[in-house]
Design goal:
single chain; alpha/beta; Metallo-beta-lactamase, Chain A; 5-stranded mixed β-sheet
Length: about 300
């Protein structure tokens, strides 16, 4: 049986002074974080979904670097990467302008009608203090960290890559899921495919995905194949006059049958259908409630189990 508890998380050294905080098994709301030890300045990349998980993360950072984080970078607005922001007491939070806007608009989202089983603990909203639109450089001591927004929607409208050029380490947020189904409902399938070109051009030595084990460019290509599969399935379904939930029932998952969170395919098709209609390509809102409802129906009509 997989141990998904906070105590199962591990610190992985990715380069000198550069670390990943990996939480098994990477399923719903169980994300990865990162941190960079710059000597007298520690930079943290993302927090966790729950109070308990974030406290474990911050303890691991301080045990490794002997100091709390002075700067926190958010890779996007989703709660599994931002709910714990308030616990990084004293840290300046950096994020995309739309990350701040989304968090202020929605507050902390636990989607209790969709997910069951989570131990959220006490959560408070805290949004980025410093925002940017396209590019920003942050230093942890002598370590250069380039923050890159793809320029359009991908996983969300506000994804941020954290690229360390000297170490060739890439913290990619949820632009890569390793072992789990990618989730494009709040972004753009076509935009995500385009954003993956940036990852290829950087040629990272090692990638910390938003969910799942440390990986490399092979896993980037796996995400690309999945997104093209979503587009092809949407094209087939729309041409046959089938709704997203209907087309999924007759779809051979092929190489993607082993991915976890299969219900995300239904939600992804809602986004892909909208893009085929010529809308929502840049992450414009779609009927999120309809997409999430269909995901629950796919799950047998019950809320989706979340182990956060």
């Amino acid at each position: 049986m997989t141990d998904r508890s906070p105590s199962a998380a591990s610190v992985r050294q990715l380069a000198e002074g550069v670390y990943g905080y990996v939480q098994p098994d990477g399923s719903w709301y169980i994300n990865n974080c990162g941190f960079v030890d710059g000597g007298d300045h520690t930079v943290l990349i993302d927090t966790c979904a729950t109070e308990r998980r974030t406290r474990a993360l911050l303890a691991a950072v301080e045990a490794t670097t002997s100091r709390p984080a002075a700067t926190l970078i958010n890779t996007h607005h989703h709660g599994d990467h931002t709910n714990g922001n308030y616990l990084a007491d004293g840290a300046t939070i950096v994020g995309h302008r739309k990350t701040r806007e989304e968090l202020l608009a929605t507050g902390i989202q636990t989607y209790d009608a969709v997910f069951t089983g989570s131990d959220w603990g006490h959560l408070e909203l805290r949004v980025p203090d410093v925002v940017f639109d396209d590019r920003l450089t942050v230093y942890a001591g002598d370590v250069e960290m380039r923050l890159i927004h793809p320029g359009h929607a991908a996983h969300t409208t506000n994804d941020v890559l954290v690229w360390l050029p000297a170490q060739r380490v890439l913290y990619c947020g949820d632009l890569v899921f390793n072992g789990g189904s990618p989730f494009a409902v709040m972004g753009s399938v076509a935009g995500w495919l385009a954003a993956l070109d940036i990852l290829r051009e950087l040629e990272p030595r090692v990638i910390l995905p938003g969910h799942g084990p440390v990986c490399g460019l092979e896993e980037v290509e796996a995400v690309a194949r999945y997104l093209r599969f979503v587009q092809e399935t949407a094209e087939r379904g729309k041409s046959a006059g089938l709704a997203p939930l209907e087309v999924v029932k007759d779809t051979d998952l092929g190489e993607f049958a082993a991915l976890s969170e299969q219900e995300r395919l239904v939600g992804n098709l809602h986004r892909a259908y909208a893009e085929l209609d010529g809308g929502a390509v840049l992450g414009a809102p779609i009927d999120l409630a309809a997409a999430l409802t269909d995901m629950i129906v796919f799950n047998g009509g019950a809320p989706i189990r979340c182990f956060s």
